[in-house]
Amino acid sequence: MTNSKSDIDHLSTTSKRLILKISGEFLAGDKGYGFDETILDQLAEDIIEVNNLGYEIGIVIGGGNFFRGRELTSIDRAAADNVGMLATIQNALVVSEVLKQKNYQTEVYSAFPIDKIAKYFTYQSAEKALRSKKICFFSAGTGNPFFTTDTAAVLRAIELNCNLVLKGTMVDGIYTSDPKKCDKAIFIPEISYSEALQKQLKIMDMTAFSLARDFKIPIKVFNIAKKRNIKKALLEKSVGTFVSE
User: Fold this and answer.
1) Per-residue model confidence (pLDDT) at position 11
2) How far apart are alpha carbons 134 and 120 in whole angstroms?
3) Which of 21, 35, 49, 156 has the maximal Cβ count within 10 Å?
4) Residues in Cβ contact with 4 at an 8 Å cutoff, skipping those fewer than 6 apart
């Protein structure tokens, strides 16, 4: 694999299809809640840049800029997770509208029926939309409590035969420890699923990571806060950390 080829291109596949996983907190920026319009615009432009390269893009966004189920312990966990899934629908609708204002076609899917504002997800419908070059949003997680949006992202990647899961974070990739807390943290440019498990690196929750490993879905972890970094994570081996067999 060289810098002249993307991480998708080196795989033995016939299409360029990916899932982009974004945390809800990223959309809020320094505000910590809701949306930062500058970030929304930058994110949309970065997605458009990749779309214009011919990639089919599915997007899964968390809901942490509005609500995180585990933070509300006074109600039933299943109910709290349902509220969190509703937050992901809000985020999908907003980012979708920003892209539409820039004259790009989108489709918002929900993992549970909410027909007035989003299509109910089926892999057949999503497949058709991706093939027509619509930028697709997969919201409401898996549709079930107790599962994270990381798991939803990997699940959609498997269902839709995606070549890669791009996980956007606020650091440059995977490190030996948290680089925000440890000055001696060492950046890891490439790692196997087995090594990541052995070293107990927290890349995704274990359900999501196990699914990715079992179905051989590569993951690229990168810093989404840097402008144009979605494209760079795809095309430059030096940007982000690549996780595969």
Assistant:
1) 41
2) 16
3) 21
4) none
Q: Which domains does the chain have, with CATH numbers?
A: 17-244 (3.40.1160.10)
At residue 125, the pLDDT reads: 98
pLDDT value of position 15: 63
Residue 10 has pLDDT above 70, yes or no: no
Q: Are 117 and 93 in contact (CB under 8 A)?
A: yes
- CB distance 61 to 74 below 8 Å: no
Entry pTM: 0.93
Termini Cα distance of the chain = 14
Q: Round to whole Å and give the CA distance between 94 and 47.
A: 14
Closest CA to 224 of 15, 45, 98: 45
* Positive/negative CA dihedral, 93, 21, 36, 88: positive
Confirm if 204 and 174 have CB atoms less than 8 A apart: no
CA distance 196 to 216: 14
Tens of pLDDT, residue by residue over 50-102, are 999 999 999 999 999 998 766 777 889 999 999 999 999 999 999 999 999 99
